[in-house]
Design goal:
Blueprint: E1 19-23, H1 31-38, E2 44-49, H2 52-65, H3 67-71, H4 74-92, E3 100-104, H5 112-119, E4 125-129, H6 132-144, H7 152-156, H8 164-171, H9 179-190, E5 197-201, H10 202-207, H11 209-220, H12 262-265, H13 268-271
Parallel strand pairs: 1-3, 1-4, 2-3, 4-5
Helix pairs in contact: 2-4, 6-8
Length: 286
């Protein structure tokens, strides 16, 4: 499971000595909470929202635009590109002393073939999910707390933003924070990548944190660590002003259940237009 320790060739990445997994699902579904629970394990390093995927796709895409690689023998050019990509992964985590790395980013699910080609192995992605209506209700709450700081979605769609139906539709659009990862998950399932993904339902996690964490360790094939779910220190931090939504990645210090939010926030005629848990429900282990 390690990020490949031999002299690297086109089919073998150089090992970092670290195991690399991924964390990425739907927003407002507990990914930051899960990340900070995992941080309690002294073997685990878990990132905040990571730029690794953007870095790798940027390298790949720029490579294709360069004239010099095009002039190289094709096999040599492809092998060199692969070494550069794998070297970037190694360099990205070179300062991490812990043996297990979990990289957080919602884009990984949409790039499974790419990252598997880079790592030369199947990937394992922890996928936090939640009733989509509750996600939309959560975004409705967090944006209403910051009326003097319009988010980019409001700035880009001022007229649609004026109604709750319009705001929900914006969030669920195919290139927006809810719609984009939802469609990536659906596409990955259609392509047969379910075995790469471990769904963690937010409600199940907050009701049964120990059981759900054990299922994560079982999926990763890592030895279990006894976590303290009543005292979760936030280690991963992000400047949420970058996303124009202060408090977006703040977590509670205790893992405990929350009642569904959407019935009190979304009008019935709005709620019925959006999915609940249908997409992954059959795949979530109870």
């Amino acid at each position: 499971m390690a990020v490949a320790t031999q002299t690297p060739g086109p089919a073998e990445p150089k090992r970092t000595g670290k195991s690399l997994y991924f964390l990425g699902g739907l927003p407002r579904s507990g990914s930051t909470l899960i990340a900070n629970v995992l941080w309690q394990n002294p073997r685990f390093h878990v990132t905040a929202t990571s730029g690794l995927l953007s870095l790798l796709t940027g390298i790949r895409n720029h490579w294709e635009r360069m004239q010099e690689p095009k002039a190289m023998p094709k096999e040599e050019a492809e092998a060199t590109k692969l070494r550069v990509l794998r070297g970037a992964v190694v360099a990205y985590f070179a300062n991490v002393g812990r043996p297990v790395v979990v990289d957080k980013g919602r884009g990984w699910i949409g790039q499974i073939p790419f990252i598997e080609a880079v790592l030369s192995r199947k990937v394992k992605i922890i996928v936090p999910v939640r009733d989509v209506r509750d996600i939309l209700a959560s975004f409705e709450k967090i944006t209403s707390k910051n009326p003097l700081k319009p988010c980019s979605q409001e700035l880009g769609n001022p007229q649609a933003w004026e109604t709750i139906e319009g705001r929900c539709s914006i969030w669920f659009h195919q290139n927006q924070p809810v719609g984009s990862p939802y469609r990536k998950i659906r596409d990955a399932l259609l392509k047969g990548y379910a075995d790469r993904m471990h769904f963690v339902d937010y409600d199940d996690f907050t009701h049964h944190p120990d059981r759900m964490m054990r299922s994560i360790y079982e999926f990763l094939e890592e030895p279990y660590f006894a976590h303290d779910f009543k005292n979760v220190e936030q280690v991963t931090v992000e400047d949420d002003d970058v996303w124009r939504m202060p408090g977006l990645h703040d977590i509670r210090s205790e893992v405990k259940p929350q009642p569904p939010q959407w019935p009190a926030i979304l009008p019935p005629e709005v709620a019925k237009k959006f999915p609940g848990k249908e997409l992954w429900k059959k795949l979530v282990k109870k």
